[in-house]
Amino acid sequence: MSRGSSERASLVRTPPYTSYRTFRTFIDDLREQGLPSRVDRSVLTRFSGVVGTQLVHALRFLGLVDGAGRPTQALADLVRAEDEGRWAEALGDLLRKEYAPVFAIDLETATPSHFNEAFRRAFPAADAVVQKCVTFFLYAAGEAGVKVSGRVLKGRKPRSLAPRRKRFAPKVPPPLAATPAEPRPEPPRADDRKPSEFLLTHLEPKEMDAEQLTAVWTLLKYFRARGL
């Protein structure tokens, strides 16, 4: 590591722990707007105060701005590399320079414990902060084409930075209204039937004697004669 890098590392020992997406957004802004005279809050208006502070910290660690926030040649080269289609190569060179202690091990074959030991030894910090630092590094390494052991990536493999496509739930056509069944004709109520019909409904000739049958037939004749 160069003397300048060593001095920066001694001043800013903690690697970037902001979101890598924030870093990429900032680089894209510089491509569109150009490099400012210095990186301060007036340039970082799209980021919250905390995120902006973390971003400046990341830029300083990576040697992209100096102590006063002025862009370095490294930042100009990185932005130009994006325009020239050399982003992965330029980013990889930057990572190898600023994360030199981590690249001292074989990242392609490193075990999770070996990787964590090397990272924590080089950049000691609180566990929660180290986890964020590692996440930033793995995202950056992935974009730079750095080969990292699948064992290290397992369980925390960086997701794609491509914009998420909004998923729409498939439209389900409303259920067809059931064809109403034809109403069954209701049996005639007792009140709606003629007396003769009602009488015949309850007539059981086999259970009646001759006198009862004679009386019923007489009554039926009476009903029918009156149209009942």
UniProtKB/TrEMBL annotation:
Residues 183-196 have a biased composition (Basic and acidic residues). Residues 157-169 have a biased composition (Basic residues). Residues 157-199 are annotated as: Disordered. InterPro entries: DUF5343. It comes from the Bacteria. This is DUF5343 domain-containing protein. It comes from Roseiarcus fermentans.
